[in-house]
């Protein structure tokens, strides 16, 4: 007897670093992104949508230098042997789009884009391989006025998302003033490129390690709490002091004046200070904005060419157990005048920022508490198969009135239909069986009130007699009765 072949059944699972999402989180994100998009559009930015895939050589940061270019990106080879990759961010596709359509675009070109991006990196807690970015960029406008607009709009976006003024700061620095610092301490030559990166990595830890920790990293090195030792930059004491003064300049009453005093008459420093001064002067309500100058903004400076900015929450946020949670940066950006040059061969000025959608949502959830699942649709129960058209008519009337509704289509069992309504978090169920139909009535069942009262009423007889969450109305009063019932829930 032939052995029966086993049927292959794939295991239902999500790839590592990816996740399914349902319900309240999606609704909260969609609502927040709608508010942010409204800010962008109010400033005259147009939406842009680019493909999920770009040719890999267009991404810039990850060029194919091996048989399969999969370092950092997810790549496939097309049937014409060209490599394509899922976009790593929304900026590289923007640069490609501008270069491809340059002659026909208005300059400056102002666009915003919302969409998923993919990174082929090691996943971890809260770190996924697919996530949403929300960017705004101006291409074709030099510093500092476009940068000033971006900083002001960044504040508007953070507040539109739900973060209150005073609970965040947009911190501004400039790649050029960092270059001025390196001129000041003698690290501006090509031969010092590696040393500059070591110093910048040390400076980037200022918010976490403070003066003492950064001083050690700029000097001989530092041993952390685990006992691991990090070699230092071996700067002399005078240069270490200059770097620390630079990082602390944001605490001065006049930060720009303090920076100027530190940098002296360095060429790059002077150019950077002129741009920062221009940003301040171009924002009419600068002093009332949550904007500060902070030279400790270092991350990404090898990419940016001028002003850089980062939004960071300042208020203390606690989790459900009262423990402090460090959210950190919720977005950032800056000027990147060299990106389109890869395609065009000429420098095209550009500035923009990206909102940290997931971090903003996490912060709002911690501040406001986790939201319950959003209310589901009104459910019209289908108790009689031959009355399905009538039930669909009821649902259509509710939809015309702006009420989300559906007809149950899974069978005529009454208990199962109510169980379904409960799982859908439906606020109301509409019931019309044979008895109601003969009276030309419908029964409105307030499922939310019913759930609340069921926790209080212990006597089944009392519950059956009173039925406080259930009442009947003429069929013609369907919409009015549902509206009034829903109004009690708001």
Automatic annotation (TrEMBL):
Pfam family example for this protein? HGTP_anticodon
Q: Which domain of life is it from?
A: Bacteria
State the reactions this protein catalyses: tRNA(His) + L-histidine + ATP = L-histidyl-tRNA(His) + AMP + diphosphate + H(+)
Which cellular compartments is it found in? Cytoplasm
Q: What is its EC number?
A: 6.1.1.21
Secretion signal, residue range per the UniProt entry: none
Q: Which PROSITE patterns match?
A: AA_TRNA_LIGASE_II
Q: What are the alphabetically sorted keywords of the record?
A: Aminoacyl-tRNA synthetase, ATP-binding, Cytoplasm, Ligase, Nucleotide-binding, Protein biosynthesis
Residues in Aminoacyl-transfer RNA synthetases class-II family profile domain copies: 30-374
Q: Which residues are listed as membrane-spanning?
A: none
Q: Which GO terms describe its molecular function?
A: histidine-tRNA ligase activity
The UniProt subunit note reads as follows: Homodimer.
Family designation: Belongs to the class-II aminoacyl-tRNA synthetase family.
- Return the protein name: Histidine--tRNA ligase
Identify the species of origin: Hyphococcus lacteus
């Amino acid at each position: 007897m032939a052995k029966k072949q086993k049927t292959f059944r794939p295991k239902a699972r999500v790839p590592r670093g990816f996740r399914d999402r349902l319900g309240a989180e999606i609704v909260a994100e969609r609502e927040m992104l709608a508010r942010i998009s409204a800010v962008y559009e109010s400033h005259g930015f147009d939406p842009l949508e680019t493909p999920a895939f770009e040719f890999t050589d267009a991404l810039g940061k990850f060029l194919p230098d091996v048989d399969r270019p999969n370092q950092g990106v997810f790549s496939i080879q097309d049937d014409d042997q060209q490599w394509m990759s899922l976009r790593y961010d929304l900026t590289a596709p923007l640069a490609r789009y501008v270069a491809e359509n340059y002659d026909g675009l208005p300059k400056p070109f102002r666009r915003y884009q919302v969409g998923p991006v993919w990174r082929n990196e090691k996943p971890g807690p809260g770190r996924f391989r697919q996530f949403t970015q929300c960017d705004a960029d101006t291409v074709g406008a030099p510093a500092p006025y476009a940068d000033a607009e971006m900083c002001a709009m960044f504040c508007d976006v953070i507040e539109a998302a739900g973060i209150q003024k005073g609970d965040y700061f947009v911190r501004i620095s400039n790649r050029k003033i960092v270059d001025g610092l390196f001129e000041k301490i003698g690290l501006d030559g090509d031969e010092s490129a590696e040393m500059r990166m070591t110093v910048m990595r040390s400076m980037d830890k200022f918010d976490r390690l403070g003066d003492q920790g950064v001083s050690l990293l700029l000097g001989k090195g530092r041993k952390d709490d685990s006992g691991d030792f990090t070699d230092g930059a071996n700067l002399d004491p005078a240069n270490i002091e200059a770097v620390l003064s630079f990082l602390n300049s944001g605490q001065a009453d006049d930060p720009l004046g303090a920076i100027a005093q530190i940098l002296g008459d360095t060429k790059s420093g002077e150019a950077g200070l002129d741009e920062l001064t221009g940003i301040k002067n171009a924002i009419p309500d600068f002093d009332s904005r949550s904007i500060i100058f902070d030279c400790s903004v270092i991350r990404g400076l090898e990419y940016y060419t001028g002003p850089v900015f980062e939004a960071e929450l300042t208020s203390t946020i606690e989790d459900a157990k009262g423990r402090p949670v460090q959210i950190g940066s919720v977005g950032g950006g800056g000027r990147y005048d060299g990106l389109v040059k890869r395609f065009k061969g000429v420098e095209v000025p550009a500035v923009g920022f990206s909102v940290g959608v997931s971090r903003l949502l996490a912060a709002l959830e911690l501040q406001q508490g986790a939201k319950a699942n959003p209310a589901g649709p009104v459910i019209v129960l289908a108790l009689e198969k031959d009355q399905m058209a009538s039930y669909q008519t009821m649902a259509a009337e509710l939809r015309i009135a702006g009420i989300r509704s559906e007809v149950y289509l899974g069978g005529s069992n009454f208990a199962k239909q109510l169980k379904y309504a409960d799982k859908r978090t439906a606020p109301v169920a509409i019931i019309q069986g044979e008895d109601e139909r003969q009276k030309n009535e419908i029964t409105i069942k307030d499922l939310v009130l019913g759930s609340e009262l069921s926790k209080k009423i212990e006597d089944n007889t009392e519950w059956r007699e009173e039925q406080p969450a259930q009442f009947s109305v003429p069929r013609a009063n369907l919409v009015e009765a549902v509206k009034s019932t829903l109004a009690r829930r708001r």
